[in-house]
Design a protein that fits this description.
about 775 residues, mainly beta, Transferase(Phosphotransferase), domain 1, Neuraminidase, 3 domains, five-stranded antiparallel sheet, four-stranded antiparallel sheet, about 10% helix
Length: about 775
Amino acid sequence: MLTQTGVKLMDFGLAKSLTASASSSSSLTVTLSSPVANSPLTEKGMIVGTFQYMSPEQVQGKEVDGRSDIFSLGAVLYEMVTGKRAFEGKSQLSVAASILENEPAPIRSVKPMTSPVLDHAIVCCLAKNPEDRWQTARDLAFELTWTSGLGAQTGIFTPAGQRKAGPRWLAWSVAALLGVTVVLTTFLFRGKRPPVTTPVRFDIQLPAGSLTFMLSPDGRQLAFLAPGPDGRNLVWIRALDSLEPHPLRGTENILVPTFWSPDSRFIAFQSGSKLKKIEISGGPPQEICDTFTTVIGGAWNRNGTIIFGTVGNGIMQVPVAGGVAALLTSTEGRNEVHTFPSFLPDGRHFLYLRAPENPGIYLGSLDVKPEQQSSRRILATSQMAVYVASADPKMGRVLFLREGTLLAQAFDERSLQPEGDPIPVAERVGSFHLSGFFSVSPSGVVAYSAGPTARWLSQLNWFDRQGKQLGHAEQPGTSSYTDFALSPDGKRLAVSKIDPRAGGETGIWLLDLLRGVSTRFTFDLAPDSAPVWSSDGSRVAFAAVRSGGNGIYQKTTSGAGKEQALVSVTGDQKFPDDWSRNGRFLLYTQQDPQTHSDLWVLPLALDGTPSGTATPFANMAFSEEQGRFSPDTRWIAYASDESGRSEIYIQPFPAPPNGGSKIPISRDGGSQPRWRRDGKELFYSSLDGKLMAVDVSGGPIFKASVPKTLFQVPVAQIGHNEGGLQILGWDVAPDGKRFLIDTATTSSESVTVVLNRTADLKK
């Protein structure tokens, strides 16, 4: 300290020599008579240092090292924040006993507005066992640097409009603590090689059924998709310095991953056929644009441009203020999808994933026309990648997955080329199809998970009409099914199968239920889904991504011959719903940006080839989907949300010239209608997870009874749709006495969060 008479040394007991003399000095006799409150300074005849700031090992006369100084520093920091000493006593003896036996009062009980992260940093300094403390002052300096960026966050969510400026002392305290730590770090370790920063690691347990997660750009919050109290998915936000997440109302019923605004204030997400944004502090969602198809991954730059990946189209761009999405990359003539874009720091270039042909990470630009984008592959991978800037403005890192290892590849921002070999960041990181279970923030925070394996593994179980489980269709816990359908005779099952152990590879498989043997039916690398059987069981129609678009194909179940296109791959997404009993019609759902989901009918010849042009059956301004022909092909049951929620309706087929009158079937919401093979009963799932049955009589005049409940499907077997809950996947045996239900288990997911993990990547 500088004074008028010269330099003075102020002893806080922190600058004690770390040489061999430490052990000998600690054997000195301790003077116990001086009252601590009146005489806090070091006394002669004492152990070197000031009692209030001594570590337990120093008080006990044990050997000390730099971690003893960490404890002393923690005591100083505690006093700076609270205005009180960490360890009090009326004498040095009582202070010594307090240091050895007591824990200081929680900082937040003295100063409630203290950040939990700052609280944690200081408590870690004051651990009794040296092994439990920060191992170097540099580690603590990095932690406090991160804490200072969090400001006055307390982990208690308050809408932005209700927040106050907060006490200024906290910001000054954090800055002062950081300054003290930096000075002490410099003093204690000068002349030594700076130690490697130790990443701070902890786990966050996400709720059962969580789908995906993403760190905010500032590294302070984690957004994830999980069911709410009513079973519908929505976005949840959890501050890393808080124990409890809060739901983001207005994001209900979304299925695809979200992405953040660069200032960490907004979340962008897809709802139905719209891309929307919502402020995390509260408020209604705002529409940005029509998406036309499913959004898979997105990015938002500081210039107000959003780009997002799609199924069936290329990367799209749109102003964040709203407008019409424009194509950035083209998939025309190629069997591939473009997904998971990630901006480079210049906000003009971006990386994105192309798959499945020649899969890898490619470079795109906002300033290049779709057909002129580079075809050069940056990295070979079949899953997403994320770009992270570094302290070097010329060199960043691309983080990506390869065989379960998260790798960081140096990337030159001038030449737009990778440099050197990738280095490992984390092991045993999970993936599902094109996505990886990891997220990285520019601030140096990494979050990853091995993946909720149980969540992706189906269990196809048989139930009777009373809900009693009768057994399973195959060995449980081996695969995950997105769609499945029983053959007309009930002896085989066509499934859209996803194997997470094979990187999320998808395809249609046929399962012999009597023999328990499954065979692969489709072999294209692009995803195939929604299988439906022909009336004689000789063919299966399915949705597929081919030549850069979504279409409907058919193939003989014998495996002979090639797949044949039924509905072209141009336009919007299409999914087959049913094949009429007489074999003459294919009913399918087509998505439309103006009318949402519509039902279309394609006439077929007896050999399964198209015999005419597809025509719309139901295409109002609402969603009409999940259509099913009655066994006599006179009626179609389907789900529509025209009432504001999904309900089941019956309408004659072919529809009369005036459109005909539809007959409401469900009373309290419903989805996924299924006919009994004799046409005398119609089943559907209610929006609260019950399996319902309705007695019907077809013919020229349709009659239906009041719906009755068969049984409640357990919660673990319930998913959701835009109108509420629904059974994940199910079908009914031809006799209507057994039901095959996907009882996929859901479990909580542990996400590992590592602070400062990318610090060594930024050198």
